Amino acid sequence: MIGPVVRALARQKTPALLMVLETAFGFALAVQASGLALHYSRAASAPRGLDTRSLLLAVTERDGPSFASRGEREAAARRDAEALARVPGVLGAAESTAAPYNLTHREVVETAAPGGPRAVAWMLDDRGGAAAVLGLAAIEGRLLGPGDSADPVGIAAATPAVVTQALAARLFPDGRAVGQVVRRSARQKPLVVVGVVPSFRASLGPDPDAESVLFAADRPPLGRALSYLVRLDPAAGDAAREGASARVREALERADARRLVLVRRLDEGAQIDTDTSRGAGGLALALIGITLVVVFLGRIGMASLLVVERRQALGIRRALGATRADVARLVLVENAVLTTAGLAAGAGALAALRAAARAVAPALDPPLDPLRIGLVAAAVWLAGMAAALVPALRASAVSPAEASRS
Predict the structure, then answer these.
(1) Torsion of the alpha carbons at 119, 124, 126 and 129, rounded to the nearest 10
(2) What angle separates helix 370-387 from helix 324-360, to the nearest 10 degrees?
(3) Percent of the chain residues topping a pLDDT of 70
(4) DSSP secondary structure code for residue 369 in this structure
(5) How far is CA 128 from CA 149, 217, 226, 341, 348, in A?
(6) What is the pTM of this model?
(7) What residues contact 311, with CB distance under 8 A and at least 6 apart?
(8) What is d(CA 376, CA 88) in angstroms, rounded to the nearest whole number?
């Protein structure tokens, strides 16, 4: 039965080709959108690994010129640390120019051995106490202390660093990270790993390297700004934490009234990423729904056009003894053939779409999942066949008298 159907469709090239192309592009868009929806959904629900509810980020900027010397900047940081230590509800504070979800960047980190493993890592500044304030404890080795921030003697001398388990696994597959030497792409001096901490996400959203984090003591610019990570009592309620946040701002303002102080929860930045991922996932799901609706409506129009153009031929079939069920079955088989051909062509359209995504934005090219592709193909096929029901009923209603019309 397929051979005669294909030959009949060959005589209606334009509507048949449009139906195939519509199915192909609908399938490709739905597969890509489903991958993005799943990707962003996982990013939004990924655990952060930090108790962000009890963490604050305090940023200060002085009104006037930059710090005149390194000593003046360090003295201001010590004065602020003393002020924060006296705030009720504050368990710890550390001066740091980088913070998860907020003030950080990525660099390539590689082992000292030529041709050894390398990875992209998020850099967090820790001149002593930042990892502890984040609530991290050393699994191996130790955390960084104030003495680790001093510049070592000699340009080749290694400075201490702490890595997360995720970064350690990438750089040291044998499991021995403490004592190993690594290099950063943006620094000449090597780093020696002195400790490993549990993995956490330094950045949310669609980032495969979010848990690869390296703590090291950066030498900050003088500038006019100082930023602090502040840990509050995690057992306190929301109201108590809000009160502690206000007291932190007041303490820093009293320490130096000639500056602007901004204090907010550390997870405000993380929540923005989470909400963005949820919104992107919802948009991708909406795109899938719109695609299926467009395929459904377009197929109804094209299939109806095929029926209208072939009313006389369908009338002849009825006059030769074909039942209404036979005519309806013919239209459904034709649509099944066109839908299947469209899905086959959709594989090529999907490959082209993925190539374009890789060229423009690699993050918009999630990996393919055979189960997901099968589910999308089934949904598109069912939408195409459902769209053929109305034209099939119209075709079955064609009277044998249509055969005598010119």
Answers:
(1) -110
(2) 140
(3) 84
(4) -
(5) 7, 8, 15, 64, 55
(6) 0.64
(7) 398, 402
(8) 56
